[in-house]
UniProtKB/TrEMBL annotation:
Source organism of this protein record: Ilex paraguariensis (yerba mate)
Name used for this protein in its record: Cation/H+ exchanger transmembrane domain-containing protein
Any one Gene Ontology cellular component term annotated for this protein: membrane
Any one Gene Ontology molecular-function term assigned to this protein's record: antiporter activity
Gene3D superfamilies: 1.20.1530.20
Database matches in Pfam families: Na_H_Exchanger (PF00999)
Signal peptide: none
The keyword rRNA-binding belongs to this UniProt entry's keyword annotation: no
Length: 338
């Protein structure tokens, strides 16, 4: 994360700002309110941490350059969710600009305190807690599994109650465990549970879908999904390229972040409560998000095929050449950090 910090933080911020700007301008040109377009930009800027990281881990790409850049941007997006929540009342006209800025400042302070507390607990409490659970579960693994899941849920709950986000709390819990000697043991223990949670998550998405509306407007839905993929891929790839990465790496990062994330459902629900998005727009955004998540695995499988098209071969060099380039880039970035 230290190596890809600049593109993760500045690139992630640029992606959110550019999408907000593009959607805001588009909304004004179409006769809609600027606030509606800005919200759609916030909504579209979120990508799916769960889906993308799972794919990278399965392909052993999480330690490759494009994988590290992608994960870095995803982490920044998760951290920015709380600030986007503070922006929603301003867009909905329920609070003034000064009040919105004050809310963002308060959230930044809370975020700093939360991360500081987590850092202290990482070396003072977490190793002792996991060691105790290991001793108590020497004959059965269920106790350790429950303890690990409970710890992650507690961290997510605290983060949510502080006005941040569930995803941020879950991520922080994972980082806290990863710094201990029990990281691999914990990962092995929770592997079966992860698939269960993934199934529950996809089921919950299905329950939100209004099938009749989507079937009636299937042409608009497909056009929206294609537009989202093209725009997000282009914007993210251009931003990544601007930080000095190769065209191949930038393209892969862009495609990996081309979907709309699961946390967009929470943003959409909050915006609906504030009457910022209602009616057909709400259902369309809901369907677009769900469809983009469902088609993401297929899109990932198309990445090698696209990069090996004859017309594009001069843009995407051979795998060995890219690996050498990525090693040089990693060393260069690391030396700059030092």
């Amino acid at each position: 994360l230290k190596v890809v910090g600049p593109v993760a933080v500045l690139g992630g911020l640029l992606q959110i700002v550019i999408l907000m700007f593009l959607c805001g301008i588009t909304a004004m040109l179409c006769g809609a309110k600027l606030s509606d377009g800005v919200f759609v930009g916030c909504f579209l800027s979120m990508s799916s941490t769960a889906v993308v990281v799972k794919f990278l881990v399965e392909k052993n790409s999480n330690n490759i350059l494009h994988g590290q850049v992608t994960i870095g941007i995803l982490i920044f997006q998760d951290c920015a969710v709380g600030l986007l929540f503070a922006l929603l009342p301003v867009l909905g006209g329920n609070s003034g600009i000064l009040q919105g800025m004050a809310s963002m400042g308060k959230l930044l302070l809370v975020l700093s305190l939360y991360l500081t507390t987590a850092s202290v607990l990482t070396w003072s409490f977490v190793p002792r807690f996991l060691k105790l659970m290991t001793h108590l579960s020497s004959q059965t693994n269920e106790l350790y599994q429950l303890a690990a899941v409970a710890f992650c849920l507690l961290s997510a709950w605290c983060s949510d109650k502080l006005g941040l986000s569930l995803e941020l709390g879950s991520f922080v819990a994972g980082v806290m465990i990863s710094t201990t000697d029990f990281a691999q043991h914990t990962l092995d223990q929770v592997e079966p549970i992860r698939n269960l949670f993934a199934a529950l998550f996809l089921s919950s998405i299905g329950m939100l879908i209004h099938v009749q509306f989507l079937w009636t407007h299937v042409d608009i839905l497909l056009a929206s999904v294609i537009l989202v993929i093209v725009v997000k891929t282009t914007v993210t790839a251009m931003i990544t390229k601007a930080f000095g990465y190769s065209i191949r790496t930038s393209f892969v990062v862009g495609v990996l972040l081309a979907q709309i994330g699961e946390f967009a459902f929470v943003l959409l629900s909050r915006a609906s409560n504030l009457h910022l998005v209602e009616g057909k727009m709400y259902l369309l955004l809901l369907g677009t998000t769900a469809f983009s998540l469902v088609t993401t695995p297929v899109l990932f499988k198309l990445i090698p095929a696209v990069m090996h098209l004859g017309v594009l071969m001069h843009w995407f060099p051979s795998e060995s050449g890219v690996q050498n380039e990525e090693k040089v880039a990693m060393i260069d970035l690391y030396n700059r950090q030092l």
